[in-house]
Amino acid sequence: MGIRTTVVGSYPKPPEEGGQFVLRKTIHALDRGEADADDLRRAQDELVREVIAEQEAAGIDVVTDGQVRWDDIVTPFARRMAGFEIGGLLRFFDNNVYYRRPICTGPVEWRGPMSVDDWKAASEAASVPVKAVLPGPVTFAHLSIDEHYGDHETFTLALAEVLAQEAFELQAAGCATVQFDEPALLGAPEDLDLAKRAYGILTRDLEGAASIVATYFGSAKRLGRGLFDLPVDGFGLDLVAGAENEELLPELPSTMRLQAGIVDARNTKLEDTDELARRIASLAATVGEERLSVSPSCGLEFLPREKARAKLGRLVEAARKVEGR
Amino acid sequence: MSVPELQGPGLWTTSVGSLPKPDYILEARKRRARGEIDGDELRALERKATREWIEFQNSLPTDVVVDGEIYRGDMVAFFAEELPGLEIGGLVRSYGNRYYRKPIAVGPVGRDHAVTVEWWEYAQSLTDRPVKGMLTGPYTICDWSFNEHYATRRDLVLDLAKVIRDEALDLERAGAKFIQIDEPAASTRMDELDLVIEAMQIVTEPLSAHTITHICYGDFHNAYPKMLEIPVDQIDLEFANSDYSLLEAFAEHPFTKYIGLGVVDVHHHAVEPVEEIAAGIRRTLEHIPPERVFVDPDCGLKTRKVDEAKGKLANIRAAVDLVKAEL
Questions:
Q1: pTM of the entire predicted model
Q2: C-alpha to C-alpha distance for A143 and A134, rounded to whole angstroms
Q3: Best interface-test mutation with A: which of B26, B93, B242, B272 has the largest number of A CBs within 10 A?
Q4: Among A22, B14, B52, B220, whose CB has the most other CB atoms within 10 angstroms?
Q5: Is A267 part of the contact surface with chain B (CB cutoff 8 Å)?
Q6: Does the ipTM surpass 0.85?
């Protein structure tokens, strides 16, 4: 059993230099009324196959569909569940990337699968396991405007119920790992107890699939070891933007998995493979190889395509060096 | 504080910076990228489009004119193309279906020639009203670039600050009375607001022009009132996009500078009605006196169609005239 490699979620949509950017052209054509929903679906399907093949070729063990159908982690779900309208643009954490803010105007309700068909399509395209990614309820609430519940806890727990149903459907479809993205939790230590309750709801009926809470863009220091009280199977930590997350690792309960983000997914400077290998060996010594996955620090969409691919290549190379030692 | 040299009781109109590129420019840029036309041909068309936008602003009239940045790909890439130490990188997404080439700092950043002065001089030659000198701030250039050279973000920001200061001084020597140093990224990280302030101090310290910074799409409510420490005369902010929610913060901590008041949403196709814009201006005047208010769109208008942008600017003019008549 070697050290597993995975990704956090998103993958660059643009092609490498000189390639045809079919998805962008198709969306432009759609905006002008010169393409339809089927054209868009075909362009997205094609790009999903391409980014999965690229992750597999790099040697990644557990891949995602690159979220190439999404603009961000919340609006695809806000558009498909009941209770939301879509509002104005806001910066996505500390990135030069913007998302449209969901506005909750009525009770949030699960109306049907929101991501299951996409996961199935990705799974069919892949020869390795495909991880499903859902927005975590705490982050979902923080990225939205609540005009209906008037109470952050009630809103968050209502979102947890909807997302729990979605996670259950993903599990029923055969998905073995569901990752919940919680970057906003890092800045909201006051929500830790609420998060525990929300994840109690989310994992209530998840018996077949592993649940991972992924944090990124920063340090979990303000949460401390309390983060590990969430009733899930593992955690993703960003060891680039939050180097001090390393100090938390000895506290990780022995039953839990670690997804360690060690390659900077927000800067083009390529990591040295030997340094990465030393880092991985040190992580393996702390938490044990069998509990460790290594990944980029966050979604790869912040990088140009060729840099993302080069970084995955180095991650895998470093992990194999450690296995072969 | 540098008081603007303008006539009248305030409520002056202006623009944030960029204006839409007409179709013939979009087409010419593509042809230039394919090597079908040369730089001089593209430049001649860019001068034509710039002249058309100045003529439009003269016709309204707009009180403080912009050159429209027709010749800039985007506000950071333009400087990255011109400054040694920065390179244009690969395509990354900014939102929705919009992408940009994100620059990379690959070596020490410097400046071997003035990069905006010639365009400013050309624009100023076409109007009797003042034309703003338009620069991108050091913090934003750093924040919107990859860094493969500098050990820390601060090192990169402070080197960029010296470069932008030198460019601002060149604009001032050329005659610019208004110099805008955009820092849309300033509201990104509260723990780096001090760095934004330190860098802006380097840029504006030797200037006597009326200095402005534009900040957008961020966490204003945390950045305010601290952002008032940014050493500029005027801060330009978006109000339409957030339904004037910042005014509540002004009620608690008075806004002490000149304000650039963004009154139309730059991401909506629809042109806001005059009365809606006027209502926003009236609400603002409850907090800031008219002699401290410049009225403009929320942000650069380059993402809108030419006609949409003209409609929005014309309605801003009409709304300002309506409110001024009530003063």
A1: 0.91
A2: 14
A3: B93
A4: B14
A5: yes
A6: yes
